[in-house]
Design goal:
CATH superfamily of the largest domain: Endonuclease Chain A
CATH architecture of the largest domain: 2-Layer Sandwich
Order of helices and strands: HHHHHHEHHEHHEEEEHH
Structural class: alpha/beta
Shape: globular
Largest sheet: 6 strands, mixed
Length: about 280
C-alpha cells in the first residue's frame, strides 16, 4: 500500500494529519479502527490524515475524546484553530474554543441575526453574498456555513448553557434572502425564545443614545465563573480576559438589557413583522 509521507512543517493542515497518524499508529490502530471510534467513514479519515480534506471542529473534538488530548497543547481542537486562522478573523478561532465550554453566553448583534441563531438558509444567503462580492471564495463560503452549524451543534449538550441574546432592532428589520428565508428565520427566533435556557430581547430603535454598544459583542462565563469578552470590527476580532475592560463590558450589557424590550414584547415585535405589520 502506498504511504504518503507527511511534512508537519509544511502547513498547519499537514501538522494535523501527521499528529493524527502518530497517535493512531502509536496505539496500533488501523484507519478503519480509528474511523469506527469517531463514527466517520474510513475514507474520510484517510483524507484528513493525508491532508486531502480539511478537518472540522466536530471531528477534532471527537478525536480529542478518543485520544484523550482534550485541553492539551497538542489537542486536535487547537490544531484545528491553527488551520482556521487563515480564513477567520483574528481571535475568533480561540473564542470558539471558549464558546463551546461556556456555561453562560451573552450576545449582542447589529444588522444581522446572531450566528448561533441563524437558520442554514439565512447563513447561506450571507455567505453567497460575500462570494459574489469577491471577499471570499466559494469554498470559504461553504466552509462558513458548515462551521456555523458545528458551533450551533456544540451548544446542544446534556446541560446546555444559558444564552442571553440582545439584538438591535435592525437585525429583524433587515430582510435577508426574501420572504421564505425570513419566515423560517423568524420561526427559529421564536422557538429559541421558548427554550428554558434562553432569553431573547430586541433593543428597539427608540432607545436612541442609550444603546451601549456600537459593535457586536459576545461575553462568555466559563465553568470557573471567569468572564471573557470578544468583540469584532470589520477587519479583526479581539479577545479580552478578566480585567477592567471585561467588567465594563458586562456592566454595559446589563444596562442594554434594562433598556431593551422584554422577551414577551420582543417576540410580539417579531410576530408583527411575520404578519407584515410595521
Amino acid at each position: 500500500m502506498n504511504r504518503k509521507e507527511l511534512n508537519p512543517e509544511s502547513s498547519p493542515q499537514a501538522a494535523y494529519g501527521a499528529r493524527l497518524r502518530e497517535l493512531r499508529e502509536g496505539l496500533g490502530w488501523t484507519q478503519q479502527m480509528m474511523a469506527d471510534k469517531v463514527e466517520y467513514a474510513s475514507s474520510h479519515m484517510s483524507a484528513v490524515e493525508t491532508g486531502r480534506k480539511l478537518p472540522t471542529l466536530r471531528l477534532s473534538r471527537r478525536l480529542d475524546r478518543v485520544f484523550g488530548t482534550s485541553g492539551l497543547e497538542e489537542s486536535f481542537e487547537r490544531k484545528w484553530r491553527e488551520i482556521k486562522q487563515g480564513s477567520l478573523l483574528e481571535g475568533f478561532p480561540e473564542y470558539v474554543g471558549y464558546e463551546a465550554r461556556a456555561v453562560e453566553l451573552r450576545l449582542y448583534e447589529i444588522g444581522i441575526i446572531p450566528g448561533l441563531l441563524q437558520t442554514p438558509e439565512y447563513a447561506k444567503v450571507l455567505a453567497d453574498s460575500a462570494v459574489r462580492r469577491g471577499s471570499i471564495t466559494p469554498e470559504q463560503g461553504a466552509e462558513r456555513v458548515r462551521f456555523l452549524a458545528e458551533r450551533q451543534e456544540a451548544l446542544v449538550r446534556e446541560r446546555p448553557p444559558m444564552v442571553f441574546v440582545t439584538m438591535d432592532e435592525s437585525c429583524i428589520r433587515r430582510y435577508v434572502g426574501g420572504p421564505a428565508v425570513m419566515e423560517a428565520q423568524f420561526e427559529r427566533l421564536i422557538a429559541f425564545a421558548e427554550l428554558p435556557n434562553t432569553v431573547l430581547q430586541v433593543a428597539p430603535f427608540d432607545i436612541g443614545e442609550r444603546r451601549t454598544f456600537n459593535l457586536p459583542v459576545n461575553l462568555l462565563t466559563l465553568p470557573d465563573r471567569s468572564v471573557i469578552c470578544y468583540a469584532e470590527s470589520q477587519a479583526q476580532g479581539h479577545l479580552e480576559r478578566e480585567g477592567t475592560p471585561v467588567i465594563s463590558m458586562l456592566t454595559e450589557y446589563h444596562q442594554l438589557q434594562a433598556e431593551a424590550l422584554s422577551q414577551a414584547a420582543s417576540v410580539a415585535m417579531i410576530n408583527q413583522l411575520r404578519k407584515g405589520t410595521p
